[in-house]
Please model this.
Amino acid sequence: MGRTRNKRLEGVVQELGVSQRQLAAHFRAVAAEHGATELQSVAQPYIARWIGGASVEGRARFILAETLSRGLGRLVTLADIGLAADTKPESESAWSDDTLTTLMTLGSTDMDIDRRRLLATSVYSVAALTLPEDQWFARAADRARTRRPLSSHVVTAQDVEDVREMAAIFSRRDQKRGGRSGRTALVAYLRADVADFLSGRFPSEEIRRGMTSAAAELAYLAGWTAFDGREHPLAQRWLTIATSLAEEAGDTPLAGHALRAMAHQAVDLAKPRQAVQLAEASLSSRRYTHACWRERSLLGVVHARGLAAAGEKKAAVAALLRAEQDLGKAGNREDEPTRVFFYTEASLAHETAAALRDLGDLQGAEAQFIRSVRTRGAQFVRTHAVTLGSLGAVQAQQGHLDIACDTWSQALDAMTGVQSGRARETVVQMRRALSPFRNRSGSRAAELDARARSMLRQA
Model:
């Protein structure tokens, strides 16, 4: 039986607009960056055979996808070029590609300013929020176990510990300085060191799971920092990878954590139906029952926010109550994963306030935002600034402009040195609320508006 021509690959190569000989040269350059010496012999006949339907083996698939991604300035997946083992519809391709391939190509895209800008400003995909059947996730660990090693490096327990330590460092920096601070270093570490570890050989299943879980946590952070920077399509891609990696590791609570972040993003982007579906997936039995109480509360409060945004008041209130009860059961933090160190009474109060605000209970929202401000730890600067901005907004909505101006002034103070798209958005919303009063020369509102305008110019 003859080969079937790979029309998907052929179409992408035609879109790139270079000759097969030129493409082969670009391929060799990318392969050299990755230390893939075995691919330095790839020339034009290889490209022709691959388009003709020949199998693309080992690392060559990854390198080809990355080469095309760089040339086109967008992420090109294995599914896009007909090389994914599972050819699902385009709307599901984010979940059907090999996770390691996607991590490598997305990491390269994210590191390039121009290509990252193209992806970050592309369309946030609602279709990609449709999750595969649960059996697909249940088989993730088996798929990962059968993945062929791409390097001879033997991963050690110390390697796993090193990656976990880096995840803790990046997470704390995000909470203190905002998602845009240190993000380049985070993605570079993922694309290089972590991708190499995942490509290596695992002497035991325990080490494979440990390294994959640590990689998932870093991918989650890459997604969350992109979300905080308002680069939503980029964040969506990273959070999808994080979910897949967590499932491959058998770390179901971490998978729930990533899905929870996707739900949070959907709420912010006014996609309440999808937010509820993602939150419900994060609360599925195997993700919820293996989670610690602090994680359960975090999953539950975001579920409540989705329900509130969808107008399901009774269900939202019930979910808020369960989240508060779950947090009340949280015990010794030494028994909890470091990824939830930031989730405290202040965090619960902030999310509760946001849900009450969406339900139209401005007084209740104000009380909860105040509770969050009073109980927030000093190390959580970014979130403190965002909370103050939200508090000022609900105060202004109730007609308490002088009080709102005091709160917003504190918010601007707190934002000094913070590099966060969400913090910046609170300043934009602040100026919008102040717009009817900004022409009153010498007024508190006019002075605050001028200060906010200056801050936006410097951002």
Remarks:
- The chain has 24 helices and no strands.
- The chain has four domains: 1-83, 87-250, 251-377, 383-459.
- Residues 1-83 form one domain.
